[in-house]
Design goal:
The complex is a heterodimer of chains A (201) and B (256). With 201 residues, chain A is mostly helical. Chain A contains nine helices and no strands. In chain A, helix 2 runs antiparallel to helix 3 and helix 6 packs antiparallel against helix 8. Chain A has a single domain, classed as Transmembrane di-heme cytochromes, Chain C (Fumarate Reductase Cytochrome B subunit). Chain B contains six helices and ten strands; from the N terminus they run H-H-H-E-E-H-E-E-H-E-E-H-E-E-E-E. With 256 residues, chain B is an alpha+beta fold. Chain B has two domains: 49 residues, no CATH class; 179 residues, Sulfite Oxidase, Chain A, domain 2 (Alpha-Beta Complex), CATH 3.90.420. The longest helix of chain B is centred in the N-terminal third of the chain and has 22 residues. Chain B is 29% helix and 21% strand. The chains are: A mainly alpha (201), B alpha+beta (256). Chains A and B meet through helix 2, helix 3 and helix 8 of A and helix 3 of B.
Chain lengths: 201, 256
């Protein structure tokens, strides 16, 4: 009677773990190469520490960035596709209400948010993971405008033009990096979530 | 039977040495890391242990991105244009050398040389180019570094010029050699784009040396480094040649 219990024990299916870790690789490469690209012509009064960047110089960073973008895109489409097709997106992330998010957030800050069932996302998790999905979509869209601003006129105008798209891309990056930071702290506080993302249980 | 090449004492010494090294934590860590890299290599299909193979892999992706950009390129889609009031003043100087090293070229003796898949190869003087129909545009120049600036260029539509010289428009590439030793090449579709012009003026004035006197190719559908200045020779070809920056790793298509 081992296999049925194993099946119900699964927290994260294999496809989810695979797309999660591929996404992690893509995000690290894109963020660190992107910081070097930003440093070539910063539009805020600061540069990012070049020791944290990838690529060695602008040309190298661009090559990494324009290679990893395919991984982010293909992996992101795979993740969203399976997530929607299997009904997991609706099951895991909805319903969602601002009041419930606030309640869970306050509980989390007081250290009273239970992690009894890791298969079930609390409201803060739902909001955070949905945010990062939308944020990645904004990153891809603004990235498309920066890469091919002439070829995507509607998208370009939606983002307020080429120059504005640079800022949108940067702020969306900051949102993603902020998410990763909080995500890592949470994993450090509840290490069994890391095991679950590796082994599935 | 020459099975053993190493004599036994040496073999034992080597084994002992190897075992000692494996016991060193840094060695173990290195082995663990190479195993992780091995996993990555399986994913990417290239040998990560060799730095030049990473570069080769990235270059392959860059060639793939050239193809994708060629497919995305719409020959009729125009880059946005702006009112004169939005022209950047001063328009930034940019080259692979400093502004004090800008080439001073004698426009009277200058001749534009033509070669490759072209039927009429007679060199052109500046006066002859100025006598051709002229167009002007106020467009955004986007640098690969990310900054951009709006400028106003005037000159001969390149498609018109390619017709005049009998260029083979089914050829894949148009290449440029410049008096400042810069060189680059572009795809034929972009060469024929209605906003691709042989710029002879900047903001209504004769093209100044710092912006590429006597002639530069202006393409608002490509990044700055694809817009060659001080052009001395143009060739039409089916053979791929990259460019000054492209040889160092910038993407060849470089389109926006």
């Amino acid at each position: 009677m081992r296999s049925p219990s194993l099946k119900t024990d699964i927290i994260h299916p294999a496809w989810l773990r695979l797309t999660h870790w591929l996404n992690a690789v893509a995000v690290v490469v894109l963020a660190t190469s992107g910081w070097r690209i930003y440093n070539a012509s910063p539009f805020f009064p600061f540069s990012l520490p070049s020791g944290l960047t990838l690529g060695g110089w602008l040309g190298g960073a661009l090559q990494w960035h324009f290679a990893a973008m395919w991984l982010l895109l293909a992996n992101g489409l795979l993740y969203l596709g399976i997530n929607i097709a299997t009904g997991r997106l609706r099951r895991q992330f909805f319903p969602l209400s601002p009041r419930a998010i606030l309640n869970d957030l306050l509980a989390a800050l007081k250290g009273k948010l239970a992690h009894a069932d890791p298969r079930h996302y609390n409201m803060v998790q739902r909001a955070a993971y949905l945010f990062v999905m939308l944020d990645c979509i904004v990153l891809v869209m603004s990235g498309l405008v920066l890469w091919k601003s002439v070829q995507f006129p509607i998208l370009r105008e939606l983002l307020g033009g080429y120059d504005s798209a640079r800022r949108v891309h940067f702020i969306a990056m900051a949102g993603l990096v902020g998410f990763v930071g909080i995500h890592l702290v949470m994993v450090a506080l509840v290490p069994k979530t890391l095991i679950a993302m590796l082994r599935g249980r | 039977m020459k099975k053993t090449i190493i004599v036994q004492e040496q073999g034992q010494a080597m084994l002992a040495d190897a075992l000692r090294k494996i016991k060193e934590p840094s060695r173990r860590q290195f082995l663990q890391r190479s195993l992780t890299l091995g996993g990555l290599a399986l994913l990417t299909g290239c040998d990560v242990s060799d730095e030049s193979s990473i570069e080769a892999g990235l270059n392959k992706v860059s060639r793939f991105n050239d193809k994708v950009q060629g497919l995305l390129f719409d020959p009729n889609r125009l880059a946005p244009t702006y009112p004169d009031s939005m022209i950047a003043k001063p328009f930034p100087f940019n080259a692979f050398y400093g502004e004090d090293e800008v080439k001073q070229i004698d426009g009277d003796s200058w001749r534009l040389e033509l070669s490759g898949l072209v039927t009429r190869r007679t060199p052109w003087s500046l006066a002859q180019l100025r006598a051709l129909p002229q167009e002007s545009q106020v467009t955004r120049h986007i640098c690969v570094e990310g900054w951009s600036a709006i400028g106003k260029w005037g000159g001969v539509p390149f498609a018109h010029f390619l017709n005049l010289i009998g260029a083979d428009k089914t050829a894949k590439y148009v290449g440029f050699k410049c008096d400042d030793d810069y060189f680059t090449s572009i795809d034929m579709a972009t060469a024929l784009h209605p906003q691709t012009i042989m710029a002879l003026t900047y903001d209504g004035q004769e093209l100044p040396p710092k912006y590429g006197y006597p002639m530069k190719l202006r393409m608002p559908t490509k990044l700055g480094y694809k817009n060659p200045k001080h052009i001395r020779a143009i060739y039409v070809s089916n053979t791929y040649t990259a460019g000054y920056w492209e040889d160092q790793g910038y993407n060849w298509f470089g389109g926006s």
